[in-house]
Structure to design on (418 residues):
């Protein structure tokens, strides 16, 4: 028996290889279902998947009170009333924050050094990215908020008390674009009003029962159109459109938290990007392959690697960037090399890596700079060209890095001469 088999059986992908659609094993849903009936069924399905339903959370003060309870639980501490108000004003709901600042607090600055009234300092986490199961998911419905207009939102998913996902539903037979237009209107009228925790929204979900889509919360005009909405899918790109199926897969707690916290990118132009299912599938399988090759002690062979086929314009650089970043979190990996052809090291890619790791990109033509970057202990990611890497390995016969656990991600494998 191959040594891979036991490892292969333990993979836990969120983009599924196999999934039996509800509509294929049950009678199809009735042609007519009111919006309120669709919403009730959706809430019941979420409750059955372990979401806590807060039936009476309908005001902003109730939302703040719940957020206080959830953040205290996550951080194993308690705020006094005065400390909580200070934490709100200094960090959680800072008056000057817009939705860009709020997204930054989820993706980059999610730990805040808070000084308590007695003078001691503690890191307060908004989310736990290392142990995703510690994040609490709750669901509320028909939350009312006033901005330039009063709006009532269908279904909101809270993570640690903060609204991260907004779901807008339309009854079967109504064009799904109407739900998109409604989200767009709420964004203009009330989501981003003063003292609104809805500035923390990361993802919108829209559904008319028979078609369900998700998209990122962004103010970028060129990204804020119906064209950027996405269906969830299986690993073979079979679309998962019916709300029942979408809820079972996308809203499975572990899947949703991974999409929010691991498979989203807040880029250098302050745009929030949520990855498409095929990008997540590719990233998951790369990480699994790295892990399984390490556990099987099967490195430095063809079968310890693999390739991902991406068509032009499908976002391969985002996929490889995310895979490289997540690979640096693996305890047994010493360095991740992101290797590109000389002419492919574009400015935007360099900026993304430099923000993540300031010393990761070495733009000069000398191999000395590359060697210096490799030697830095606090620098787990190296961006280099295949030409420079080749020169280094030809001229340096005995480097410490040769004996360490290293991942190579080649941006365009077909162009590289190995």
């Amino acid at each position: 028996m191959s040594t891979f088999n036991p490892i292969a059986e333990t993979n836990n992908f969120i983009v599924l290889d196999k999934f039996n659609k509800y509509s294929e094993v049950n009678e199809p849903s009735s042609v007519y279902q009111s919006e309120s009936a669709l919403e009730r069924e959706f809430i019941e399905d979420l409750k059955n998947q372990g979401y806590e339903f807060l039936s009476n959370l309908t005001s902003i003060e109730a939302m703040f009170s719940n957020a206080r309870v959830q953040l205290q639980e996550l951080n194993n501490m308690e705020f006094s009333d005065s400390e909580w108000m200070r934490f709100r004003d200094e960090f959680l709901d800072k008056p000057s924050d817009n939705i860009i600042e709020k997204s930054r607090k989820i993706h980059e600055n999610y730990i805040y050094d808070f000084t308590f009234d007695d003078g001691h300092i503690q890191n307060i986490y908004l989310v736990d990215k290392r142990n995703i199961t510690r994040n609490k998911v709750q669901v509320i419905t028909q939350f009312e908020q006033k901005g330039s207009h009063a709006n009532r939102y269908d279904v909101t998913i809270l993570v640690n008390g903060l609204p991260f996902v907004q779901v807008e539903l339309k009854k079967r037979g109504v064009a799904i674009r109407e739900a998109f237009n409604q989200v767009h209107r709420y964004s203009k009228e009330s989501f981003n009003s003063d003292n609104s925790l809805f500035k923390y929204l990361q993802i919108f979900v829209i559904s008319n029962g028979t078609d369900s889509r998700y998209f990122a919360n962004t103010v970028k005009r060129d990204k804020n159109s119906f064209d950027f909405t996405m269906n969830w899918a299986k690993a073979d790109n079979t679309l998962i459109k019916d709300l029942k199926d979408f809820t079972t897969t996308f809203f499975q707690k572990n899947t949703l938290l991974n999409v929010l916290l691991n498979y989203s990118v807040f880029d250098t132009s302050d745009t929030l990007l949520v990855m498409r299912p095929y990008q997540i599938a590719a990233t998951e399988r790369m990480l699994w392959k790295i892990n399984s090759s390490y556990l099987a002690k099967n490195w430095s062979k063809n079968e310890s690697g693999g390739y991902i086929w991406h068509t032009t314009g499908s976002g391969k650089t985002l996929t490889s960037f995310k895979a490289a970043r997540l690979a640096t979190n693996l305890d047994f990996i010493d360095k991740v090399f992101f290797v590109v052809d000389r002419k492919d090291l574009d400015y935007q890619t360099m900026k993304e890596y430099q923000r993540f790791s300031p010393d990761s990109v070495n733009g000069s033509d000398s191999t000395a700079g590359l060697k210096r970057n490799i030697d830095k202990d606090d620098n787990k990611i190296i961006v280099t060209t295949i030409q420079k890497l080749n020169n280094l390995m030809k001229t340096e016969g005995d480097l410490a890095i040769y004996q360490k656990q290293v991942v190579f991600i080649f941006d365009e494998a077909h162009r590289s001469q190995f």
In short: The CA atoms of residues 13 and 418 lie 31 Å apart. Residues 277-295 form the longest helix (19 residues). The domain at 307-415 is CATH 3.40.50.300 (Rossmann fold).
